[in-house]
Amino acid sequence: MTPYLFTPPAVPSVAIRGKDEQFPINRLFFVGRNYHAHAVEMGKPVDKSVERPFYFTKAPQTLTPSGSTVAYPPETKNYHFEMELVVAIGKAGFRVKAEDAHTVIYGYAAGLDMTRRDLQLVARDKGRPWDLGKDVEHSSVCSEIVPMPGVVIERGAIELSVNGAVKQKSDVDKLIWNIREIIADLSLFYHLQPGDLIYTGTPEGVGAVLPGDKITGSVEGVGGVELTVGPKA
Ligand code: MN
Question: Which domain range does residue 63 map to?
Fold first, then answer.
């Protein structure tokens, strides 16, 4: 084996409910503006009849297990939560038809797409990449993956609270592009691989957290996710 100059970083992975094996992570995809009420609160309503979904990615190294405490990140004054249903891909797929989308699904998780909103909005409004706002260290929080091979989730309550106060409350049936449509569209651009996670977008009610805050979220039929915001980095 070719030696490395230094020990490579470990493969990021997520626990799987009921299994000893970890789910190794390949890529992290995120759908932007996928609930109408959230698109409106961001000042960018979506007209599905003339628009296609869009995506951004984060480094797999941003993955953080549910239950973690993470430092309030640097260079932001507006660190936001976004509660999301996460699809775990278990089979390779390219140009997957919507009616076949279930065949590449391994399972689901509850996730948080933590965001430096101030930096994301500057980037968005100046036409710059979103990386400094979105690709934040420790910002891709993920619960254990629940194996549900071949299952397409079409509805279920999605909620998030901060310090016990409800901030986001919606239903997965309000996704603008549903899970079949997302897999079909995303797989036009990428060869989906086992280990890819797709964060499907957040409903309305996003907001800021502060050091000491505890975030708890859930997706009906999948489970919960938790994050505690620690002192500033
Ligand atoms: Mn998001």
Answer: 13-232
